[in-house]
Amino acid sequence: MNSFTGCEGELVARLRDSFESAFPGAADFSKLRVLPATDPKFGDFQCNDAMGFARALHQPPRKIAEAAVAKLAETLSAGAADPIEKAEVAGPGFINLTVSSKWLASRLEGLGADEGLLVPQVGAGRKIVIDYSSPNAAKQMHIGHIRSTVIGNAIDRIFRALGYDVIADNHLGDWGTQFGILIKGYRECLTQEERDNLTVANLEKCYVLSSAKAKEDEAWKDACRAELVKLQRGDADNRALWKRFIEISIGEFDRMYAKLGVKFDTYRGESYYNDTMPGVVAKLQEMGLAVESEGALVVNLESEKLGVAIVRKSDGGYNYTTSDLACVQTRVAEYDPERIIYVTDARQQLHFKQWFSIARKMGYTTQLVHVPFGLMSFAGKAISTREGNLIRLDELLSEAKRRAFDIVKDRGGDEALAEAIGFGAVKYSDLSHDPITDIDFDWDKALALEGNSGPYLQYAYARVQSLLDKAGSDGSSGGIVVSTPAEKLLALQLLQFPGTVLRAANAYKPSILADYLFQTAQLYSSFYQSSPVLKSEEPVRTSRLRLCAIFGRVLGKGLGLLGIQTPSRI
RNA sequence: GGGGCUGUAGCUCAACUGGAUAGAGCAUCAGACUACGAAUCUGAGGGUUGUGGGUUCGACUCCCGCCAGCCCCGCCA
User: Fold this and answer.
1) In Å, what is the separation between the CA of A295 and the C1' of B60?
2) Residues 527-556 of chain A in contact with strand B via CB under 7 angstroms
3) How confident is the model at residue A2 (pLDDT cuts 50, 70, 90)?
4) Strand runs (DSSP E) across A61-211, as ranges?
5) Domain coordinates of chain A in residue numbers?
């Protein structure tokens, strides 16, 4: 994956050669990095690695940097053909590089023309599975489901864009004790009309009623358990009911996913792995990994400080550890992916560490990755039915749309536009944070339309499209000349896009991309303010138009990777 | 008791995994529309990065000890 080094790859190669010829074989220079300059006054790019080599080379870092720069100077060709215009050593051994504006222009032109440069195809021929969203059947989606869905989907989109063959799977909670309660509740707590027009809301209602009764009425509880057993044994009636519950649930989930622009390749819930679980447990026993303990079958992971994982309950049933292992077995057999990514809340970290460890002991070599995200709370309290602070996803999206529409309608915007902006705001407010941070839900924060927000980026996009429309050009031809500071800052920033997408993928953090897009839009807005485009004389006009077009391309692509729509008119 | 995550401006968050003077948004204050779209832009104030040590040319970042908050720790997922 690291064969691509970004637009500065050329610079890295040049510096690496310089280091190698200054200190042949004296150290490993292969990991040398060239980063954007931290301050424009230092130049355009910088390399900080000379300091790191001080110990290996037994020389003061500044001397090392100077020696490398001297070698580099020898290779600098006269004239503007060389990418590097200037290289100098500063402070303890920073190497500051200034690139030629001609090179900058040519890299930009390449970025504007070549899709493969915009998003490097590092994933070609590689298969991965991404497992996210995973709501429980028969319950409505609420704000607690946003994070897995939105973060997971952004990771999904990023990996697809990088050329990976991605299988997005929704591991629904479609099995377990709640179905005994549901079936009993369906039969006893709903009216005939409610049964005929079954909705997820009704299912949720009968679940709440039935589980409340089970708590106070032992006979009811036993009846629920009996229904569950019947379901598990394949009773036709219960099986049909269960199937209907799942279908209704998926129908409702799909309605939400359609609004959010989320698509899955498969909807394999826990029930999909029922039949393979006994085999998994048998294998664990054969390998001597699972042992009896207090009536249950457990895998002891104390030596790794991971406690004990139960793989078969004392009543003979299986739990999520076994289900996840069965799932991995199936995915490996069917797809043989090089990686499986799980996007779930951070509370499950121990669980994932446990079963990842067991999977390795079983011989699975697929790279298993857990992407944990922080908890969402409301007014400082956990989101739960009991707290009564369970805001339905549907409700949130409606409110997002309503607020956006209030602003959009004055300009003749329609409902579709209000959705694009409102939903974009919801997604961005989540994606712009590092996934691990806990979020205390707040209407105003989640639906921010100004500043560092989704609509800020959409506005910048619409504005640049409008500019291109007015110019009557798509800005795809003509030469770029980077001369003013504002142009240069924007140009250098745009060149960082491919590397940023890669960084976001490697870290499984869409927030890295979101942050970059915001910075880029800020630089563009600043450029836009200070630099006339349409009113400029040629060749500046054409050049700036082109810069605008590339910005539009980068922003449009980037927002697309986050699953945020880009209307060309706002 | 054991473990995980988090702690940065009044608030919400960044800081490219050890680099140069810790940056944005919101809020506050002062400016910019007869202007390529003001959902924007320009500027100002605001910091002992929880705390005490350590490692080194250099620490928000790594190591150790404390403090605070959240979350996990065999039959829920």
Assistant:
1) 49
2) 528-535
3) very low
4) 84-90, 94-99, 127-131, 165-169
5) 9-99, 395-561
Q: A371 and A151 in contact (C-beta within 8 Å)?
A: yes
Q: Is the CB of A484 under 7 A from strand B?
A: no
pTM: 0.95
Establish whether the CB of A374 is closer than 7 Å to any nucleic acid atom in strand B. Answer: yes
Q: Can you spell out the DSSP letters for A181-231?
A: HHHHHHHHHS-HHHHHT--HHHHHHHHHHHHHHHHH-HHHHHHHHHHHHHH
Is the CB of A209 less than 7 A from some atom of nucleic acid strand B? no
Write down the pLDDT at residue A389: 77
The architecture of the domain spanning A395-561 is Orthogonal Bundle (1.10)
Cite the DSSP H helix spans in A390-539.
Answer: 393-408, 415-431, 443-446, 454-471, 485-495, 497-507, 510-530
Instruction: Answer whether any strand B atom is within 7 A of the Cβ of A251.
Output: no
**Which nucleotide has the shortest C1'-to-CA distance from A48?**
B19
Q: Which residue has the tokens 């032109």?
A: A109
Six token digits for residue A92: 């303890």
Six-digit token pair at A106?
A: 């040519």
Side chain identity, residue A385: T
pLDDT tens-digit map of A382-426: 888 777 778 899 999 999 999 999 989 888 889 999 999 999 999
Q: For residue A266, what are the contacts with CB-CB under 8 A and spacing of at least 6? A: A167, A168, A169, A170
Query: What sign for the dihedral angle of Cα A517, A520, A526, A527?
Result: negative
Positions 88-127 of A with beta carbon below 7 A from strand B are 90-94, 96
Residue A487 · residue A536 · CB < 8 Å: no
Say which DSSP state A77 is in: P
Read off the pLDDT band of A3 (50, 70, 90): very low
Could you check: is the Cβ of residue A489 within 7 Å of any atom of nucleic acid strand B?
no
The values of phi and psi at residue A280, to 5°, are -60, -45
Are A9-99 and A395-561 in the same CATH fold?
no
pLDDT at A56: 86
* Strand B contact at CB of residue A449, distance < 7 A: yes
Task: Flag whether the ipTM exceeds 0.90.
Answer: yes
DSSP state of A135: P
Structure tokens at A469: 């429309």
Chain A 119-178 residues whose Cβ is under 7 Å from strand B: 173, 176-177
CA of A40, C1' of B43: distance in angstroms: 20
DSSP characters over A326-383? HHHHHHHHHT--SEEEEEEEGGGHHHHHHHHHHHHHTT--SEEEEEEEPPEEETTEE-
Residues of A 19-38 whose CB lies less than 7 Å from any atom of strand B: 33, 35-38
Q: Are A129 and A337 within 8 A, CB to CB?
A: yes
Q: How far is the CA of A351 from the C1' of B3 (A)?
A: 12
Fold held by A9-99: Gyrase A; domain 2 (3.30.1360)
